[in-house]
Automatic annotation (TrEMBL):
Comp. bias intervals (Basic and acidic residues): 216-231
Xref: InterPro entries: Efg1, EFG1_rRNA-proc
Domain of life: Eukaryota
Main localisation: nucleus
GO cellular component, one term: nucleolus
Locations listed in the record: Nucleus, Nucleolus
GO biological process, one term: maturation of SSU-rRNA from tricistronic rRNA transcript (SSU-rRNA, 5.8S rRNA, LSU-rRNA)
Keyword Endoplasmic reticulum among UniProt keywords: no
Region annotation Disordered: where it falls in the sequence: 1-24, 157-263
Protein name: rRNA-processing protein EFG1
Similarity annotation: Belongs to the EFG1 family.
Skewed-composition ranges (Acidic residues): 232-241, 254-263
Length: 263
């Protein structure tokens, strides 16, 4: 009776399986609302509420599309931006070091001017719009008139944003990679910035890495078991032989095998 009661309690404790409701996608929700609004004889208040909901869904969709586009462009132009950042970083460090070692005021003034130009270039890289194609600061070929004009606009807007926001600490880290001063090695900044290019392992890569090796099927079966047993017996014999040899050595009787190793 005890076992029956326990089984009955377990059966009661188990909850019935409920299939989870599928959440409709954003695209399907927009389509459903558009179909609903095409109907006739809809109440004015209901229509206004549904139109507002549709507008909100459209905004949500546009935001997602914009983020996806930004992500694609950021991934595409990540390397050019990184290499230009390292190049400008090196120039800033060189200028900073040269200013400290300048012999006269004229040379110092020229170096300070060069330092400010490189700082503006770094602001350009720092504030570059993610949703736009990257226009290089050091192009292999001359830029088109349109690209040159857009670059000048972006340089000016980056300087304005920097004046408004004043992100001194974050910008210093961006310029010198962890805020290294002029005494630090030039390669230190590049090495620290190189971590930006390191890609995270994908899910498939992690699965392959953590995948357990398959067992060899040839080991299975009665034959393999028999062989293992025989091998164990041999080991036992060897161990017993070793024990006999050890006892013989104690008694002072050396075997041929002992003579071989002694020679």
């Amino acid at each position: 009776m005890k076992g029956t009661r326990l089984r009955f309690k377990k059966a009661q404790a188990k909850k019935p399986f409920r299939k989870q409701k599928k959440i409709p996608s954003l695209k399907n929700r927009i389509r459903a609302l558009e179909r609903f609004l095409k109907r006739e004889n809809i109440d004015a208040a209901t229509k206004a509420a549904k139109e507002a909901e549709l507008k909100h869904l459209h905004d949500e969709r546009d935001g997602k599309e914009r983020l996806e586009e930004e992500k694609k462009l950021a991934e595409k132009y990540k390397k050019p931006r990184f290499f230009e950042r390292v190049k400008v970083m090196r120039k800033l460090k060189q200028c900073k070091k040269a200013i400290g070692q300048a012999s006269d005021a004229k040379e110092r003034h020229q170096l300070e001017k060069e330092f400010e130009e490189n700082r503006k270039k770094m602001m350009y890289i720092y504030y570059y719009p993610k949703a736009e194609r990257y226009i290089s600061l050091f192009p292999a070929k001359p830029l088109s008139e349109e690209d040159t004009q857009r670059q000048q606009e972006l340089l000016a807007s980056a300087a304005e944003r920097f004046e408004e926001e004043q992100p001194e600490e974050a910008f210093e880290r961006f310029c010198y990679a962890h805020g290294d001063d002029e005494t630090s090695k030039p390669r230190g900044g590049a090495a620290a910035a190189a971590t930006l290019l390191v890609k995270k392992p994908s899910k498939d890569g992690e699965k392959k890495k953590n995948k357990k090796p398959k067992k060899d099927k040839t080991e299975k079966g009665p034959q393999a078991k028999r062989e293992r047993v025989l091998a164990d017996e041999d080991d036992v014999e060897d161990l017993s032989g070793d024990a006999e040899m050890a006892s013989g050595a104690k008694d002072g009787t050396d075997s041929d095998e002992d003579d071989f190793f002694l020679e």
